[in-house]
Amino acid sequence: MPNLINEIIVRQLSAEFARAEGMVIVSLTSLTVAQTEGLRDQLAERGVRLRMVRNRLARLALEQKGLKPSDELFGGNIACAWGSSEDTINVAKAVTKAAKALDPKKPGKVAFRGGFFEGSLLDAKAAAALAELPGKNELRAQMLGLLSGPARALATLIAGPGSSLARVLQAKADKGEPATT
User: Fold this and answer.
1) 12: three-class secondary structure by DSSP
2) Which residues pair with 83 in a beta bridge?
3) CATH classification of the domain holding 25
4) What is the CA radius of gyration of the chain?
5) The predicted structure's pLDDT at residue 1
6) Do residues 37 and 9 both lie within one domain?
7) pTM exceeding the 0.70 threshold for the entire prediction
8) CB 38 within 8 Å of CB 97
9) Does residue 10 share a domain with residue 49?
10) pLDDT at 131 exceeding the cut of 70
């Protein structure tokens, strides 16, 4: 019976991993239940679910996706969160924030193990680097700034001579001199 249950879990994980664009695998060493639930709540606010997965079953599901995870990726208490590319970045940001908030005196309770992003495997450093990527709204704001910057500079340049002339005329009017052009 346990083999049948494991097969069902692997099939379900394989189907979910196949739809996912990215995944972050996190080590949850010596976290209390309250801390784990707090981390899950933070991720749920961002629309992402953190799920504890048996190491062997997650490895099998990733292998069925065509990815060959390293041995150190799975070991100990791990949790996985997966979804779209944006979800994966949100997970990395939330995990980084939660890791800093948990216990600054004892780092390493929550640590990145790795994951995958858009078809390629990530090591721990690459998974942590996902937290530094800008989100969709940040990228939109940056693009808007890039697009509106040249137009703003052009409008300032065009308005420059006219405003200079107006200031000179106003200064002469303030002094009481007749304006001659």
Assistant:
1) helix
2) 22
3) 3.30.70.1730
4) 27
5) 44
6) yes
7) no
8) no
9) yes
10) yes
Summarize pLDDT for 105-124 with one digit per residue, the tens.
Answer: 666 677 888 888 887 888 88
- The Cα 20–Cα 118 span in angstroms is 8
Instruction: List all residues 6 or more positions away from 47 whose beta carbon is below 8 Å from its beta carbon.
Output: 87, 90
- Pair (146, 58) in one structural domain: no
Do 23 and 80 meet the contact criterion of CB atoms below 8 Å apart?
Answer: yes
Is the domain of 36 the same as that of 110? Answer: yes
Confidence bin at 67 (pLDDT 50/70/90)? confident
E strands, the chain, where? 22-28, 51-52, 78-83, 110-117, 120-122
What does the chain come to in residues? 181
Total domain count for the chain? 2
The parent domain of residue 37 ranges over 2-133
The SS3 assignment for 77 reads coil
Alpha helices in the chain (DSSP H): 2-19, 33-45, 55-65, 85-102, 124-129, 136-175
